[in-house]
Amino acid sequence: MVMLIWILGFIGLAWALGYFRASRWVWTAAGAAFLVGVSLRGGLPPGWRATLWTAYVAAAAVVLIPQLRRGIINRDAQQPLRAE
């Protein structure tokens, strides 16, 4: 039941940030604040917390660092558009 509340909270947070067209930095800060709350009060085992934080840091790095974003996201998205 507690996990359902956390999931609904995450969906509500994502909806609010999307509705107000928040910047990448605001999304990252809100996601980190949410993960802090889950880590402190969510009741997850340490292995799950470490996995969530590792995935979050990797995703945030790709979203926030322009060189990584261009190298990983844009390259793969433009691959089908290139003429052979």
Element pattern in H and E = HHHH
Helical stretch tally = 4
Overall geometry comes to globular
> Radius of gyration from the CA trace?
16 Å
- Strand content is under 5%
* Unreliable parts: none
Q: What's the structural domain tally?
A: 1
- Mean pLDDT reading: 86
Q: Can you count the beta strands? A: 0
Largest sheet: none
N-end to C-end Cα span: 53 Å
| Range of helix content | over 70%
The structure class reads: mainly alpha
Notes on the structure:
The chain has 84 residues and is mostly helical. It has one domain (2-81). The protein has 4 helices and no strands. α1 (2-19) runs antiparallel to α2, α2 (24-41) runs antiparallel to α3 and α3 (46-64) crosses α4 (66-78).
Layout of SSEs?
Blueprint lengths: L1 H18 L4 H18 L4 H19 L1 H13 L6
Helix pairs in contact: 1-2, 2-3, 3-4
Structural descriptors:
single chain; 84 residues; mainly alpha; 0% strand
Entry summary:
The chain has four helices and no strands. The chain has about 80 residues and is mostly helical.
